[in-house]
Amino acid sequence: MAFVFDPDIVHECSLASLDKPKPAMFDAFAEAMENKYPGRLDLDQPWIFSNAGGAMIQMKLYYASIFEYIMIWGTPIGSEGHSGRHAVGFWDTVIDGEMWYYGEGQFSKRVYLPGDRVYVGPNQARAMKFGGADQGTTLTTGVWAVEYARGPLPLSIPFGLADELVSTLDFATAAQTLSIYASLVGHHWRLPHADGAAPSMLRRTLGTVLASVAPTVTRLLRPAEPDDEIPSDTSPSSVWTPAPPTRSSASGVPQTKRRGGSAARG
């Protein structure tokens, strides 16, 4: 089977993100990938949570098909959990922060820093901790990474949704995960095959339908953007109204104006 992406090239593009602030590091990766794989990525998908294997992160998917995906994922506060044991291979490049892995029979952690690569192969599993400790404190640094996966991705969907369906009860995130995946598969089906051959009319038509319908479903499923302002009226008669939608930058990061009286903590 011919695959679209070379994990070594994805890693090379990931290095363009190093030493840049967020969200500029995400844009730098997307630009580097666009130079290597013109038109392959869809940059318009939103950031969403992901709860899987006990770990909580947020992610932005740039590409997905039945056998490959590319995304950036991370957390500013750290998390830990089980990688899952998949029929898929995963290549990760750390672009900010730190993460620790270990496998069965390994008695010391593997520490990965910006620029380092991690590979977890098919039928392998790791214990993971995202974010090391700041020097002299117990606070985590968090981590951000680029991930490329190759293999039969639908077999891993139950792992990706199980925590959201039976633990966190975050049905909005579970549904968005599926609608975004469908949208990206549709985008992929409209493009030439990895060998340059044109897609069949049926494949292109199905891709057009998915790429048209799925983003609408995602927009309908989106919850209101996070609003950290303390409500000024908490009397029993007060009426709650959702926050207005916010614009997003090219990297998908919401741009909001902080209102007076906000008690948000940075």
Q: Return the CATH topology of the domain at 7-160.
A: Jelly Rolls
The fraction of residues assigned to DSSP E strands is 15-25%
Q: Do you know the CATH architecture of the domain at 7-160?
A: Sandwich
Q: What is the makeup of the main sheet? A: 6 strands, antiparallel
| Number of extended strands | 12
Query: What is the count of DSSP helices, taking H or I runs of 4+ residues?
Result: 5
Can you write the helix and strand succession as a string? HHEEEEEEEEEEHHHEE
Mean pLDDT level: 90
Structural class: alpha+beta
Percent helix, as a range, is 25-40%
By CATH reckoning, the class of the domain at 7-160 would read Mainly Beta
Q: Going by CATH, what is the homologous superfamily of the domain at 7-160? A: Jelly Rolls
Residue windows where pLDDT falls under 50 for at least 5 positions: 256-266
The end-to-end distance, rounded to whole angstroms, is 47 Å
General form: globular
Computed Rg: 19 Å
Spatial strand order of the main sheet: 1-2-3-10-5-8
Q: What features would you describe in this structure?
A:
This protein has about 270 residues and is of the alpha+beta class. The protein is built from five helices and twelve strands. The chain has a domain at about 5-160: Jelly Rolls. The longest helix has 21 residues, at about 200-220. The protein is globular. Residues about 255-265 have low confidence and may be disordered.
